[in-house]
Write a structure and sequence with these properties.
302 residues, Rossmann fold, Alpha-Beta Plaits, six-stranded mixed beta sheet, binds adenosine-5'-triphosphate, binds magnesium ion, ABC transporter domain-containing protein
């Protein structure tokens, strides 16, 4: 089996509303795949179809070589919203799940300790979950997703509620899962993390995949520069935007994406000839955030 997931022409309608249309993509086994899109784009709906919680209105899904829902023990899942048994301690809750998953006695205790350690929850493990912070609950959610040592791990908004340190720890956990050859499917709005972790992406917009592919081929790595200059006239800047691929970055600086070889030199010459002073020029790799913003317009009505 080459792919952990194959989606072919998947559609999902709720009454008359089309939430997903013609979704087709694959996730190679052992790779990490990110699904990104604005709120309401259809990401969680797609996950529920993959898990077999919802049935597609059309198209087909193959999940670890079977139908959705056929191999639950091979799939780990962190839901977007979790409702835990708050009167349990974290350890009790995980032990209970270990039991449900077929582990007993020392094996269950060892698995629970391993997961608590991995998620940095060993210290809080014996406190009632009712007293947990949002981040602690999220960590227990990640621990439960890994209970059956699944080969396919599906995480819906895993960074939600985690502070920057805990987010970094979770990135490290994901990197460790990749080294164990597990397949990851991650929905998140934290694009900087996804860019580091994921080998491929799909961007869902209004229920359709508008871009998908490998991270390395989606993000521009050559012919893209960060440029800083001052004292350039507005007309010159407009001319450079039109002719030579100059644009303004989110932080107000300039990005130069060469449309053709020599654009960089042409821009620098034009700026210098017009009396502007150049402060800096450096190569700039396109980020997933840049890419997402370039294909999904923030002004477009939802
Ligand atoms: N059970 C349902 N019945 C009717 N409509 C639904 C149902 N579930 C989802 N939808 C609709 O489908 C669309 C996609 O929702 P979904 O939760 O998949 O978005 P999402 O991309 O996960 O968004 P977010 O980033 O906010 O989590 C939304 O318009 C939502 O209202
Ligand atoms: Mg969602």
């Amino acid at each position: 089996m080459k792919f952990a997931l194959e989606a072919a022409g998947v559609t999902k309608k709720f009454n008359n509303k089309t939430a997903l249309a013609d979704i087709s993509f694959e996730i190679p086994r052992g790779s990490a795949f990110g699904i990104i899109g604005r709120n309401g784009a259809g990401k969680t709906t797609l996950i529920k179809l993959i898990l077999g919680f919802l049935r597609p209105s059309g198209g087909a899904l193959s999940v670890i070589g079977g139908a959705p829902g056929e191999f639950y023990s091979k799939i780990g899942y962190l839901p977007e919203y979790s409702d835990y048994h708050l009167s349990f301690t974290g350890r009790e809750y995980l032990k209970y799940l270990a039991g449900v998953s077929g582990m007993n006695g020392a094996a269950a205790a060892a698995k629970v300790s391993e997961l608590l350690e991995m998620t940095g929850m060993s210290d809080g493990a014996d406190r009632r979950m009712a007293h947990y912070s949002k981040g602690m609950l999220q960590k227990i959610g990640i621990a439960q997703a890994l209970m059956t040592s699944p080969e396919f791990v599906i995480l819906d908004e895993p960074f939600s509620g985690l502070d920057p340190f805990a987010q970094k720890e979770l990135c490290d956990i994901m990197a460790a899962l990749k080294t164990q050859n597990k397949t990851l499917l991650i929905c998140s709005h934290i694009l900087a993390h996804l860019e580091k972790i994921c080998d491929g992406f799909a961007i869902i917009h209004r229920g359709r995949i508008i871009r998908h592919g490998e991270t390395s081929s989606m993000l521009v790595t050559r012919g893209r520069y960060r440029l800083s200059f001052e004292n350039a006239g507005a007309a010159v800047v407009e001319e450079l935007k039109e002719k030579h691929g100059l644009s303004i970055a989110d932080d107000g600086g300039y990005i130069l994406e060469e449309k053709k070889k020599g654009d960089k030199e042409a821009v620098l010459k034009r700026l210098i000839d017009s009396g502007a002073s150049i402060n800096a020029l450096g190569e700039s790799k396109e980020t997933l955030d840049d890419y997402f913003n370039s294909v999904v317009s923030p002004r477009e009505a939802e």
